[in-house]
Design goal:
206 residues; mainly alpha
Length: 206
């Protein structure tokens, strides 16, 4: 029982760290929140539950670092997708004054887009292969309950933290249209920078 608690606490810590670490996924979630409101974005907090399953299974099966060629491919694919999201966010920023009468993406659309981004991003593959994967594997070898405790703590902390971020930035919509539009513009720049950086990492490694 003590070992389960240790793995549960580790999962909570790593899940919180993964949620608050700046990256393309976080920038996308913030941009969607500012553009569409927290209610239409809240489901995106559950995206890791959908996308991480195959990633974790793949990493644990391979039991090694993600191959270089796959990492470069993921960087390029992620970069292109993040740039696509940046363009969508820019359109929302450009048409901000009329956004109130435009149809906002549903929560399910936000969830599916966030899940796609997470699958294409190399971050989860690297994170699970180098950081959390070995911990999960060690816990499962000791006892299945340890691995389950680690996963439960990790995703509970990650989802709750992402939900908190979404609600927090959702309140920015009530600070006035100028503040909201400025923050949305910052999110556009962040997404574009992340996308270009991902592309550079992928292309420079070829």
């Amino acid at each position: 029982m003590e070992n389960v608690t240790v793995y549960l606490v580790q999962g909570i810590g790593y899940g919180f760290a993964a949620a608050v670490q700046p990256g393309p996924f976080q920038a996308y979630v913030i941009a969607q929140t500012l553009n569409n409101g927290w209610r239409n974005t809240l489901l995106a907090a559950f995206a890791p539950l959908i996308s991480d399953g195959p990633i974790v299974a793949l990493v644990l099966l391979v039991l090694s670092q993600v191959p270089q060629w796959m990492q470069r491919f993921l960087y390029v694919a992620s970069g292109l997708f993040v740039l696509y999201l940046a363009v969508n966010a820019f359109i929302g920023w450009r048409d901000f004054d009329t956004a109130g009468v435009a149809a906002s993406p549903s929560g399910q659309q936000s969830l599916s887009r966030a899940a796609i981004m997470n699958v294409l991003s190399p971050g989860p593959y690297i994170y699970w292969s180098l950081v959390t994967g070995p911990i999960l594997l060690a816990g499962c070898r000791e006892a299945p309950a340890n691995g389950i405790g680690f996963l439960a703590g990790f995703y509970a902390a990650m989802i709750l933290t992402l939900a908190g971020i979404i609600v927090l930035f959702g309140t920015a919509r009530h600070l006035g249209p100028k503040v909201n539009r400025a923050m949305l513009g910052i999110s556009v720049v962040a997404l574009a920078c992340f996308g270009l950086y991902q592309l550079w990492l992928g292309i420079s490694g070829m």
